[in-house]
Amino acid sequence: MSAPEAMDGWTLPCAWHRLKRAAPGLALGCLVAWTVPAAPAERTSGLVRYVADGDTVYVRLAGQTDQQAVRLVGIDAPEICQDGGLAARDALQALLQERTVELQIQGQDDYGRLLARVFIYGADAGRSMVQQGWAWSYRFARQPELYAAEQQAARAGRLGLFAQPAPEPPARFRRRHGSCKVAP
User: Fold this and answer.
1) pTM (2 d.p.)
2) Cys-Cys with 76: which of 7, 96, 119, 138 at CB 3.0–4.6 Å?
């Protein structure tokens, strides 16, 4: 089971991946708490200043001077050091770099990044990344994948990462090698 972060309209009030190892009973309680709908997502806008990889950007939020790391909800792109990682980063960079985006913030992850759906000119950037084959639709447990149909179409069309015979999902890569995030 992979670590849940947030899904459309849902947030996780505890550090699942840490708890499931240290205190399985408490982790189960958090999982039950996670099934309760969260408050409506906060909406804001900002300027994308840096694209770290295919699912993480740094945004200067409206009215602020500092940049905030934002993890796109619903997708999982290859690590930057993973095969396809640079291409995925380049695709997201072409889509968002130095553009004003709308954010639908759904929470914060264990690394302090905002978890958000990101929209550019009204289009969902996460959906676009999966449609082009540069990211996997992210799923937790039995919850539906946000972009499952888009991923299926990208696989069928052998787009982006799916042009490879057996692209390695980022979660599997991270289990074997760890993360290789790059901060601005």
Assistant:
1) 0.75
2) 138
